[in-house]
Each structure stands twice: as structure tokens, then as C-alpha cells.
Amino acid sequence: MVKPITLYSHAKGPNPWKVAIILEELNIPYEPKFLDVVEMKKEPYLKICPNGRVPTIEDPNTGITLFESGAIIEYLAETYDTKDALSFSTSPEKFYQSQWIHFQMSEQGPYFGQASWFARIHPETIPSAIDRYFDQIKRVHSVLDRELAGKEYLVGDKCSIADLSFVTWDLLVPWIFGDRIGEYDAEKTYPNFYAWNQRLMARPVVQKVVKDREEALTTGH
Amino acid sequence: MVKPITLYSHAKGPNPWKVAIILEELNIPYEPKFLDVVEMKKEPYLKICPNGRVPTIEDPNTGITLFESGAIIEYLAETYDTKDALSFSTSPEKFYQSQWIHFQMSEQGPYFGQASWFARIHPETIPSAIDRYFDQIKRVHSVLDRELAGKEYLVGDKCSIADLSFVTWDLLVPWIFGDRIGEYDAEKTYPNFYAWNQRLMARPVVQKVVKDREEALTTGH
């Protein structure tokens, strides 16, 4: 009997929802705990996550506490996806899976994050910074589009944690571009990327998590 | 007999040198191939790495081609560090190792990279963007400093790929800050971080790679 995993989360941030998708896909019971930004930056949370950000998980089944969403989804797959339904545990696929998760973590997440910062949060409007990061969003999509030519999924022939790791940041693209979303027709410019994203969005679990997120945005938890 | 691994590299970028450190530490033979930025963005390199960046490795021993430095060093450790001299292959340490490599990939690399962009490359001088990223460099160091209180290394009781993954970006901090380096006394502000970085920098392999990098910066290869 698997005991519920605690997921430290935040309604707005895309990274805890990325972990929620993998938990739901793998049918792992979990309890989200929503923190506000002030709580993340102080004790007792800093003892659990010295980075002061979410997500972090506490898994009572293994005693492991882990932060960084990329590391968490790899841990969940390795520990709970023992039949490789949503992941790869053998070479070479497991290394390609790791490669795309690192690409998500080191390029999609940071560039999309900086785009939202300069387009929506930074106190000063800096057109050259906004343009820089909007261009990087398109560049990240161009890389995925190139890779997905003639393929349904990034690795092997099934949907895996590598694909699903991209969903929650892509969901925010219309919000990031705001009034300027008309400038970017992803469907026309990057059709392989677009079709893949639609395929992922159509999964019942992704739809459920999108709903959970909307509810959390309204209620705060 | 291990055949040499091809390492697609660039004299300036910190990420290929991160991989070089792990190759040298594990005594894996390798041949660097230096590309300029134009070559990275077109065929035939894009076939090897759709992201158009370095590093990428080609390993003739396994037939694997892989990009993203975080994925590459995990692959090298898993494939060649069979005695766990520089890495962890059992739970929970292997998951903590993955956590810190993801932190390096998703926070240290991107924030230090954006700091260099706005401080040294962006055509316009934007003080609020430079300040933002200089603050993030300090914040990343503060996280490492907190974690390293009373510890020699990030995971377990030995130096691992998790620690070494941070070295090459930290090496660039004086260049990133430039004239403003006087503002930031890492030794005084984050002594645990500073002592750890000195410990890593003192390793013969790290010193060798620092020299190789200086030579490549002079000769271009």
C-alpha cells in the first residue's frame, strides 16, 4: 500500500503542476501543500528545500525528500513506474529521456520564466529584453519541431515523462505573450511541435491537472 | 579498450568544459572538436544536436550521441564510473546527485548565462536587468552555502559529478561581474560555498582543464 507523497506546490508556478501530472499519470497518491512565496523563503521550508522554491516532495514510502522538478519526475518514474509505462529504464532510451528533461529544465523553463518576468513582472518595460525572451520561446519550439519531424513523441514510440515535462510551461505561453500573442502562430510556424503539444494536452490526466490548477488559482489551494 | 569519445566543444562556453572535467576525472579518452557558433546552427551539426549548441558527445563504444551537459555527465558516470569513484548509483544518494545537477542546469547555468548576456553582450546597457542577474548569482551561491554548512561536498562524503558540475560557470564569475566584482566578496558572504569551490578548483584535473581552456581561448581549439 503506497502512502501519499506530499507535494509542496504553488497555484501559479508551472513546475509543481509538472510533478502533479506525473503523479496522476502513475496513479501515485499525493497530497499537495500550497505555500505562498513568503513561506518558501523561510524556515521550516528552507530545511526541506534550501533553494526556497517549489516543488519539493516528501515520500514516506522511501523516506526521500527531493526538490528540482526534473529530478523529482525521474525519481518517481524510477521508483513507481516499474513497468516502464511512462518512462524508459534501459539504454539508450533512458539517456535520451534524460537529455530532453535536461533541455526542458535548462532551456524551456528558464527562457519561458525570463520571458514572463520581463513581459509581466519586471517593474520597468524593456522591449529589447522582452524581444530576446520571446525569440527564445520560439527557438525552443523550433528545436522541438525539428526533433519531432516524423515522430509522435520525443523518445521511442510512447509518451513519456520527457514529453510531459514540457506541458505546463507551454500552457503559459498565451499569458506570457499577452497582447502580443497575435505575433506568434505556433501551429503554422512549428506544426510538428504544435501537433505534439495538442496530443499531450488531450490526455485525460493533463486535462484534470489543468482544471486542478484553475481551481487552485481561484481558491489559492 | 575504450575508444575515444568525440566532444563537440567551444573555447568560451562553460558547458563543454564541464564535460571535459568529468571525462578527465574518469580517465575516459576523448577528442574535442571545436565548432564556431555558425557551424553549431547548421547542418551537419544540427543532425547531431537539434538544439544547435554544445556540448554534444558521440560515443563509439555504445553508439550513443547525446547533448545537454547534465545528461552527458550522468551518462558518463553511469557507463564508465562502475566503481562509483565520482558518482552514486544507489538510493538515496543517486537521487540527491540528480537533484543538484538539475539545480546546476536549471538555475546556476541559466542565471549566470543571463548575467553574462546583459553585463557583457546585450547591445543596450540595462542596469535593472544586470542587477537582477547579479542578485541571482549571489542567490545561487547562498543556496549552495546553506547546503554546505558542515559538509565538504553536496552529496555523501565524496566529491561527485554533482559538485564538479558547478565549477566551470563559477570560474566565469569575475569576468561576468567585470568592473563590479568589488561589490561581491564571496569568501566573506558565503564562506561554505567559497571553501567548497576552492576545494574543487584545487583538483589536478580541474587545473588541467582550466589550462586547456586558456589555451583554446588563445588558439581557438
Tally of individual domains of chain A: 2
Strand fraction of chain A equals 5-15%
Lateral strand order in the biggest sheet of chain A? 2-1-3-4
Subunit arrangement of the protein: homodimer
CATH architecture of the largest domain in chain A: Up-down Bundle
Helix content bin of chain A: 55-70%
Computed CA radius of gyration of chain A, to the nearest angstrom? 17 Å
Order of helices and strands of chain A: EHEHHEEHHHHHHHHH
> What is CATH's topology name of the largest domain in chain A?
Glutathione S-transferase Yfyf (Class Pi), Chain A, domain 2
Low-confidence stretches of chain A: none
Q: If helices are DSSP runs of H or I spanning 4 or more residues, what is the number of helices of chain A?
A: 12
Provide the structure class of chain A: alpha+beta
The CATH class of the largest domain in chain A is Mainly Alpha
- The overall pLDDT average of chain A reads 97
Pfam families (chains A, B): GST_C (PF00043), GST_N (PF02798)
Family (chains A, B): Belongs to the GST superfamily.
GO molecular function (chains A, B): transferase activity
Keywords (chains A, B): Transferase
